[in-house]
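Fold this sequence, please.
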Amino acid sequence: MSVSLTIMLLCGVLFADEKTPATLRVAALLGPSGIGMSYLFTNTPDVGQGTVVSFETAGSVDILLPKMLNREIDIGILPPNVAAKIYNVNSGSIIAGAIVGNGMLSLITRDASIKKLSDLAGKTISVAGQGSTPEYVIRTLLAKSGIPADSVTLDFSVPTAEIAAALISNKIDYALVPEPFATVAVMNGSTGDKPVIRAILLRDVWNANGLGTDFPMTLCVVRKEYAEKYPATVRKFLEAYKTSIQWTNANPAEAGKLVEANNMGLKAPIASKAIPSCNFVFIPADEGKQSIEKLLSTFLAYAPESIGGKLPDGSFYFK
């Protein structure tokens, strides 16, 4: 082989490795899931080679997901079970980039006698979201704690956004909610001789039952086609996202202002107060595989169809 041909082939390999996209389109969910990304909305990351990064918000998973499937969004935020289901039933169209939020579920109540799950025997708990992480985590933990399933009633009749107000007004006595709803309830229910308290943090019970130190609630996900074509760009964005989360955790007051300024669905005081309890983390997907699988196994036990009938294979985890 001639020297010139060898050089041409090497150049071809180098240029192939340096493929860069014109755009990177990112979407955050309104509410707590988007808090950790609000810094990037104001401080647009440089992912290299002139790629234009754009951000938008989506009011719900039902709005964000179709945009990803229609290639209108390249990177987004989804609950682990939704990401797994789409991967399993849509030819691996979406993969996990990182865990960006761990367990932030609290059992809130005015009843100071509640110290452990067994204290809830005979009680009715309003749960935020039927068929989602709160339901299957509490069912799993009740079973692991040896508490008969029929001794605790799970009530899904109160909309998640109304649970805090219902607890504060004594319409309900016990509730299982994520952030910022727990923070809102504690803030607004702090008066009187029986203030609203976080009686149980479910991640502590998860850990105590040998299921892992924590469980994921939020994943940063990437269109598989985009990740395969532009892995370097995705890695640079994920590094920027990691920085954003670290800054958010370290600067809750300033982060709260950005959340409100970027119309992320929360007022600054509530966002700032909730951040320390939101359990924002950044764990690369391949490093968090075991944690993700532990959570998905709870869905597999109670509602296999909710994750597409099986645990996703290794290709689900971006490296």
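The mean pLDDT is 93. The domain at 3-102+216-316 is CATH 3.40.190.10 (D-Maltodextrin-Binding Protein; domain 2).
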